[in-house]
Amino acid sequence: MKSDANTASLPVGRNALSATLALALAACGGGGSSPPPTGGPTPTPTPSVATCAVQNQIAFANDVLNEWYLFPDLLDNTVNAADFNDVQSFLDARVAPARAQSRDKGFTFATSIEAENELINSGSSAGFGIRLSYDTVNDRVFLFEAFENAPGFAAGMDRGTELLAIGTTANNLVSVNSLMASGGPPAVINALGPSDPGVTRVIRFAQVDGTVIEASIVKADFNLDPISDRYGALIINDGGKSVGYLNFRTFFPQTADAQLRDAFQLFNSNNVDELIIDFRYNGGGLVFLANVIGDLLGENRVGQVWSRTVLRESKSSENETRLFQNEVQSLQASKVAFITTGNTASASELVINSMVPYLDPANVAIVGRNTNGKPVGQFGFDFEECDLRIRAVTFQTLNANDEGEYFTGLASTVPNTCRAGDDISVQLGDPAEASIATALDFLSGQSCTPISGSGAQGAQSVGGLETLQPERPNAAQFEIPGLF
Question: Do both 312 and 363 map to the same domain?
């Protein structure tokens, strides 16, 4: 999402939207996201019934779309606000024509100001801290990742763990196989319970080595760590050649720039000039951090065009061109392989698209699966009294060659693609893992099987498994697919 959510709330400082709208330039995505207007207090609203009546919130959302939506000709103007009793359903109806053209695949949504600000500022989330996928054919659910500072990992869960049964106590465990067979993924999501601190579930699970554990796990607040201390930044010795490996989980929180600089310091100290950047599960986030990655890849490119942000014609005065800026730890890689899946979206795609003009066509590839296809981003618009933020698609991001029409994914625009699996039985960062092994082969000049087709494989596709995602994800789940 162009939820370049930079800071919790940046004042527009350019045009006022209207007296009734608080514009939160929280750019997310593109894409990425932009944060809301800076300096805004963390809302603890106690709104009056009149102020926060649903119809007032819908009217606010309608004003946002009418003035700022990137594709004004793709809004359904026949929609009657009186027919809706929640903001998200109204938004879905209004942007349906854009969604039908794959230009807004759930990118316009309503969320909580407070929850998203916590995500932007500190990476705060609540839950087990695990990311889940499912196999509908065999009715099984697996972890594709676990955050090390969260309850799931502490209980013994990690990449490749299979959930076997879920209950509120040890006496009412229901097998995941039964849940999937009776109600599909929503039944599993319901069984896991709300993402609130203190929610407890007894879960029986099998680790990769076959060890079965049954544990009572309490959901808790935890801070997202965008670069794992275990496998986030590594030097891979590939036949005597040092290859830098960066696994960037999420473009949140905004303080992740320090971790990125540390990673590139590691690469520079090992004279790395070939990189694997692993975005396979990265759903995007702050454009600010995408720009930092660009600068770190931009040695000798300071002052050249990194990306262009383009709004609708009536807002063209807001268009911006972002140039490479100086970074002490910058490097100029000769070859880069980006690992991607259908979960790779927004700010992740921005980085890839913006680097293409600066790499020899023979020396850049996406490896794994096609990306989501989100070259657009959102600004955030706040109705503070109601803790309501409207994330509306408001801009498109182009690279230095003015390319940015990858609504069906980057496979049709990146010079090289290499199809590869996502082997969840092997830890991320391991050169034997299927996608990493294929990326190393590409960097070594070996041929590969292209990613077939030009169409995006869907936001949930992770190669063989589908991401477990609620129909109405919370702020963290929208940016970090599969998070529970």
Answer: yes
